[in-house]
Amino acid sequence: MADELHNQTVTWRELWNETADLIGDRAHARWLCEVASSSARPDEFLAELDQAATVRMVSHLDAMLARYRAGEPVQYVLGQWSFRHIELAIDRRVLIPRPETELVAEVAIEKAAAIGPTRLIADLGTGSGAIGLAMAYELPREGTTVWITDVSADALDVARSNIAGLGPAGRNVRAALGSWLDALPADELFDVIVANPPYVAVDSPDLEKAVGDWEPAGALFAGPDGLDDIRTIVGESTSRLRKGGWLILEIGADQSEPVRELMAAAGYVDIEVRPDLAGLDRIAIGRAPSSTT
Ligand SMILES: C[S@@+](CC[C@H](N)C(=O)[O-])C[C@H]1O[C@@H](n2cnc3c(N)ncnc32)[C@H](O)[C@@H]1O
Questions:
Q1: Domain map (residue ranges) of the chain
Q2: The pTM of the whole model exceeds 0.90
Q3: Is 101 in the pocket of ligand 1 (CB under 6 A)?
Q4: Is residue 197 within 6 Å of ligand 1 at its C-beta?
Q5: Which of 101, 151, 181, 193 to mutate to test the pocket of ligand 1 (most atoms within 8 A of CB)?
Q6: Helices (H) and strands (E) in the chain, counts
Q7: Is 283 in the pocket of ligand 1 (CB under 6 A)?
Q8: Among positive and negative, which fits the CA dihedral 137, 141, 143, 146?
Q9: Looking at the predicted structure, is the pLDDT value of residue 12 above 70?
């Protein structure tokens, strides 16, 4: 689209309109133009609408448009995505952070904020770092330590780059490579363990095609019933939580009953499942069994 404009002066207003006409989505067109124009904030982009784009910026927009039109999710094309109050760099090595996961983080923040003066938190399977880094950013700097872990070295590289973008709160974050609880220091008991693990059943007919085509399989699938990783985390967390500590899990909309049963069998108390914004049961919460010390 913009190729023919390389040698002409073109403003961001024109590029936004042309991009919107081309892809049929004005909001996505604006996001693509914002990133191509290197606007740090949306209001900066609006202030620049009548300024000319440089050739380099138009080339960047062209490259993003080619990816977008090939079906790549807009979040990967942009290379960044907002999660609660933070901006995360993302690419195909990590899951795209979802709105329902923002609610999981909210519950984890609520539970952790009630603990003090210090709070030790683990976000297992951190991907981009979304949950753990939002927690580090929103909880008091004083006394908060957040471990973020992943079994994927690629994902942990992305999360590490996002720690760097977190500012002073990043000093409260520790990153570790490894499978679920094995990644954590053996001699620590945690106040809050939170995870958005893979929970899609292999061969699930419900998985959106774009998700299966573009997002990492290791972030999605968890055995024949989608519960393999949840079983491991529920079973292994009991001995890693301090007495009264919380386990908070994002789960699939049809997993509420089996996850309640798994938590009850492992001895968790005060078990509840909260809905997401669509009213679907997506956030499982339990308190560590009282035998944990
Ligand atoms: C559904 S994604 C969630 C990513 C991120 N927490 C979020 O909410 O956007 C699941 C993550 O768990 C990681 N994972 C898969 N198996 C794991 C394991 N055995 N131990 C630790 N992390 C694992 C994947 O690499 C992926 O980053």
A1: 2-68, 81-287
A2: yes
A3: yes
A4: yes
A5: 151
A6: 11, 9
A7: no
A8: positive
A9: yes
User: How far, in Å, is the centroid of ligand 1 from the Cα of 197?
Assistant: 5
Question: Does the C-beta of 179 come closer than 6 Å to ligand 1?
Answer: yes
DSSP secondary structure of 161-185: HHHHTTGGGGGGEEEEESSGGGGS-
Q: Are 189 and 241 in contact (CB under 8 A)?
A: yes
- How do residues 83-142 score in pLDDT, each as one tens digit? 999 999 999 999 999 999 999 999 999 999 999 899 999 999 999 999 999 999 999 999
Segment 258-281 mean pLDDT: 97
CB-based contact 277:103 (threshold 8 Å): yes
pLDDT > 90? residue 4: no
Amino acid sitting at position 182: D
Q: Which CATH number fits domain 81-287: 3.40.50.150, 3.30.1130.10, 3.30.43.10, 3.90.1570.10?
A: 3.40.50.150
For residues 200 and 222, is the Cβ–Cβ distance under 8 A? yes
Q: 17 C-alpha vs ligand 1 centroid, how far in Å?
A: 38
